[in-house]
Amino acid sequence: MKDLRPALVQAQQGHLYRRRRVLDSPQQPRLVVEGRPLLSFCSNDYLGLAADPRVSKAFHRGLEHWGSGSGSAHLVSGHSRAHHALEEELADFTGRERALLFSSGYLANLAVVTSLCGRGDTVIQDKLDHASLIDAARLSGAGLKRYAHNDMAAARQRLAAARGEVLLAVDGVFSMDGDLAPLPELADLASQHGAWLMVDDAHGLGVLGAGGRGSLAHFGLDADHAPVLMGTLGKAFGTAGAFVAGSEALIETLIQKARSYIFTTALPAALAEATRASLEILRAEEWRRERLASLVARFRRGAAEMGFKLSASATPVQPLIAGRAQTALAWSRLLEEQGILVTAIRPPTVPKGSARLRITFSAAHEDRDLDQLLAALESLKP
Ligand SMILES: *Cc1c(COP(=O)(O)O)cnc(C)c1O
């Protein structure tokens, strides 16, 4: 048995050690963290639904009806009427034949990639794709070919050289940068090369496109362009879990083959009831997306005036690149001293030399919250 401590000490010395904070309040802009009030700009609760009373009430009603546990995997006896109804509503929302619920986005990505590809096949990905897509490709046994971020010439080369069944998998909105994948170009490339296009829209659904239908809707694309869509429920939906939406044949294939679907317990049915309520709000309340857009526009104007270099992001994910991990930590500490919580994002979550503050906005943020953030950013001004 090796001594685990030297590696931990080394991570600490490299400013890469990670520590959890203990929240004493619900997930919302105004948090209590370890007993102290902090204004948060780092959650993925983009629409402010994680503590919405209507969603909580649906959760309660679900608990009263269904109890707390689902009892087993979906294929044994864990698939309730509530799960089933949510799947139908998600299929309708995304304009696809079927949707299939998963316990997390990580598991959904493992399911898709390992079910569609295996040894002799090729998975092509953007270098900044989410870790779960990369792990999924590794687990599948297919060859993993990555291309430089949003470099379409490089993506084309990868596709031209690919063997076997080919899956081109990308984040719709890149999670740490907030920019979009050029989905129309990727859809063209995939169709020219007979490849599947899969979009992981964890940060686009609920936020982008008419009715919150996500990155594909933002570009006017549909299931013909990207036959595999993955969405998570723990971000804009404010609950937990994930889904894959696609054709009847795709969903049946996942049910038959995907080990991360078959061998895991179904989410609580009550959570499916809560998510049905949040889906309804997400579709109906356009003002939440308008609110986000105006917060983002005001933030970008204010930060640019202070001389910060902004990324090419029009989404609620707005990184300020610090470079060194140590600098990102120092920035985060300076904000925290002023009552603002933005955790530093460091390698390996982001490439070396690009440690950052990943500032995110929620429709629940008020104008005075943004004023407070901009005032605090003065202390980090370049
Ligand atoms: C959060 C995220 C996931 C994982 O989803 P979970 O439900 O949190 O496991 C997958 N892909 C992307 C792009 C994400 O941001």
From TrEMBL:
Q: Where does pyridoxal 5'-phosphate bind?
A: G105, Y106, S175, H203, T232
Q: Which PROSITE patterns match?
A: AA_TRANSFER_CLASS_2
What metabolic or biological pathway is this protein involved in? Cofactor biosynthesis; biotin biosynthesis
Q: Which GO terms describe its molecular function?
A: 8-amino-7-oxononanoate synthase activity; pyridoxal phosphate binding
Per the entry, which co-factors are needed? Answer: pyridoxal 5'-phosphate
Task: Tell me the ranges covered by the Aminotransferase class I/classII large domain, including all copies.
Answer: 38-377
Per the record, the similarity remark reads:
Belongs to the class-II pyridoxal-phosphate-dependent aminotransferase family. BioF subfamily.
Know the name of this protein?
Answer: 8-amino-7-oxononanoate synthase
Organism name:
Thiolapillus brandeum
